[in-house]
TrEMBL record:
Protein species of origin: Paractinoplanes bogorensis
Name this polypeptide is given: Response regulator transcription factor
Residue stretches making up the HTH luxR-type domain: 150-215
UniProt cross-references to SMART domains, sorted A to Z: HTH_LUXR, REC
Keyword annotations of the record: DNA-binding, Phosphoprotein, Transcription, Transcription regulation
Gene3D superfamilies: 3.40.50.2300
Length: 221
C-alpha cells in the first residue's frame, strides 16, 4: 500500500515536530514537507501535491484559513484535502476555515488515534470532524446566522436522505450511520453522494454546515 503523503504547517517548531513524529509512526503515512507559515505551506503543497495537508489555523504572514482557501477553496479546480487543527474548541476561525474548503478539523489535544483517523478520512475523500466539538461549534455559528439565505437543494431530499443528513451533522461516520439506520454501508455512501449533488457541496463538512443552517439536524426539514 502506498503511503499517504502529508504536508504539516504550524508556526511552532515543537508542534510541527510532534505532529510529524506521530504521523510518521503510522505504517502508511509519510510527512513529506513541513512549513512554519501559510505562505510556505501553500508553496510546498502546490509543488509536492500531498494527499493531505494538516494546517494550524493561527500562523504568521498567511494564516491557515487563507492557505486553505488557496488550496481547497471554491475557485480551486483541483483542490487538495486540508484538515485544520486548532487549540480552541469554539472559534470563528474554525468555521471560516471550513467555509474556505477544509475537509475537517481537530483540536490539538485530540490524541494520536483521532489525528490518524482524520488524515486517513481526508485521504480517501471523506471528512472527520472532532466529535467533541461538532455539534456545539456548528450550531453556534448557525444560530449566529449565515451571510445569506442557505441555498435550496436542486431536488427535494427524500425522508431517508433527511435522516442521513442529520446523522452526518452529528458527526457520525458511514459505519455508524449504517448501524443506526439499519442499512448497508454502500447504501449510506449512495445517500451521502446524492446529498452532495443535491446540495451542491463538496464534502461531509459542508453537508453538516448546511444541515445546521437550515435547522435540519433532527432529520426533518
Amino acid at each position: 500500500m502506498e503511503s499517504i503523503r502529508v504536508v504539516v504547517a504550524d508556526d511552532q517548531e515543537i508542534v510541527r515536530t510532534g505532529l510529524t513524529m506521530i504521523l510518521n509512526a503510522e505504517p502508511d503515512i509519510q510527512v513529506v514537507g513541513e512549513a512554519p507559515d501559510g505562505r510556505r505551506a501553500v508553496e510546498l503543497a502546490r509543488r509536492l501535491r500531498p494527499d493531505v495537508c494538516l494546517f494550524d489555523i493561527r500562523m504568521p504572514g498567511m494564516d491557515g484559513i487563507e492557505a486553505t482557501r488557496r488550496l481547497a477553496g471554491p475557485a480551486v479546480t483541483d483542490p487538495l484535502a486540508v484538515v485544520v487543527i486548532t487549540t480552541f474548541d469554539l472559534d470563528e476561525h474554525v468555521y471560516a476555515a471550513l467555509r474556505a474548503g477544509a475537509r475537517g478539523f481537530l483540536l490539538k489535544d485530540a490524541g494520536t488515534a483521532l489525528l490518524s483517523q482524520a488524515v486517513h478520512a481526508a485521504a480517501r475523500g471523506d471528512a472527520l470532524i472532532a466529535p467533541s466539538i461538532t455539534t456545539r461549534l456548528l450550531k453556534a455559528f448557525a444560530e449566529a446566522g449565515p451571510s445569506g439565505p442557505p441555498a435550496q437543494p436542486i431536488d427535494a431530499l427524500t425522508d431517508r436522505e433527511e435522516e442521513v443528513l442529520a446523522a452526518v451533522a452529528r458527526g457520525r461516520t458511514n459505519a455508524e450511520i449504517a448501524a443506526e439506520l439499519h442499512i448497508s454501508l454502500s447504501t449510506v455512501k449512495t445517500h451521502v453522494t446524492s446529498l452532495m449533488a443535491k446540495l451542491v457541496v463538496r464534502n461531509r463538512v459542508e453537508i453538516a454546515m448546511w444541515a445546521y443552517e437550515t435547522g435540519r439536524t433532527s432529520g426533518r426539514p
